[in-house]
Amino acid sequence: MKKSSAQLTKMVFAKTLTVIFFCLTAVIIFSLFVNVAEGIINQEGITTVLLGSINTGVIALAVFELALVVKKEYASPNDDEEKDAVSSLRETLPRFIGMVCVALSLEGLIMVIKYSQLELAGNLYYPVAIIASTALLLTALGLFIYLTGKGTIKEL
Predict the structure, then answer these.
(1) Quick check: 51 and 110 in contact, CB under 8 A?
(2) What is the DSSP letter of 79?
């Protein structure tokens, strides 16, 4: 079967973006190791080094997950069976949004720990806003899954 130029363009861009995201993941992981080594050499607090490395690791995992989603959804050669947009989103969106929620939750918790260590309790509204936004994002994802699972989206 011959592929249309639009399908070919889509596949080329998807593969290019997948490679870029995989490379970014490798660079972020390398940066993680460099930051941990620098923290140990500079004798920084172990808590600061560990929290920074957890944050960087979660970001690397989120970028890696994004690369997998792009590869699965757009670069796969099985475009013969076109799925509708809702079912496609229902398959990939929960994993990606879940990773984003984990990253945001960790960022908010890390900020709470940093601010409490530095006795900056007045700045706690930033991490609270991040955590509240994460809860809202997770709620919206749950609502999307609920509505698309019941077939309600098609009726709207």
Answers:
(1) yes
(2) -
